[in-house]
User: Fold this.
Amino acid sequence: MMWTKKICPPVLLAGWLSVCLSIGQAQAGFAHRPEVKAWLATQDELGFSQQQVVAMLQAAQRQPRVLPTLAKAPERTWVWSDYRQRLLSAQRIKAGRKFMRKHAELLSKIEAHYGVPAEYIAAIAGVETNYGRTMGRYPTLGTLATLAFEHPRRQTFFRKELAQFLRLSYQHQLDPLAIKGSPAGAIGMGQFMPSSYQAYAVDGDGDGQVDLLTNTTDSLTSIANYLRRHGWQAGVPIMLPVTISAQSLPEISKKPGRGGVDLHTWHHLGVRWHGQPVPQSSMDDIKYRLYAFTTHADPEYLLATGNFYVITRYNHSLWYARLVAELAQSLGQQ
Assistant:
């Protein structure tokens, strides 16, 4: 595993700080910056002392590559069909089915408790980290510090995440300089941002520890908890591929949202679905929104429910939610 969990006993603290400070002086970290000093002056509940935080920020390496990486959202340069072809690979599906067989008993228990289908829990782990195989190579402290003080638009958000990361490191006795994750600062199999780790991570195996860095049970349970806490409804469909007639002009949602109208109304508006039966309850009681997805030819259309919206709370991209749903459907067919 790429994750390193280090406990820092008080007796080693003085020596550890000395090493951090000497490294930091050689590498010119963040702590000397005026904006960092101003931010630190407002932080009095990080767990670590101010001296410790200064030492860690001075030792943290700036991560300049994360800024252009975050700016390259696939939706800005690709079409949906290319994104799907690249990420919904036969290898990912095969690995996911193997992962589900290996953890079948655990996933069944989580599904029974949280009401989230096992294939959707596994699909998120699959999309995020290839089922825990690639959990990130960017030093998380340096990444969050870089984004917190250099991101062109979201410094407030990333400063909050930086503070949460330091708090959770202190609470769980982790070495902040040893943890690696995504270019956005997300960590673990489920790629939780620090604030989500604090809010939604759970002790799935009852060992008294909440560990999303090395513990598969905690990680999968926390993914299910995240979805349920954001409003996942057991037994509700996710999405329905549809077509629209040239004469109809139904309202297409450009951003994820709850609500919508029932299938009777969509049918009246000229939306059609083919190739799969639709339960009467889905026709009458469940609300759907209409979304469009780009291809190199005509757009593809999808009616999606509130559960589809819940997936977008994990990642606010419509493409991400559809990818997770299609991967889950493939995993569920084994």
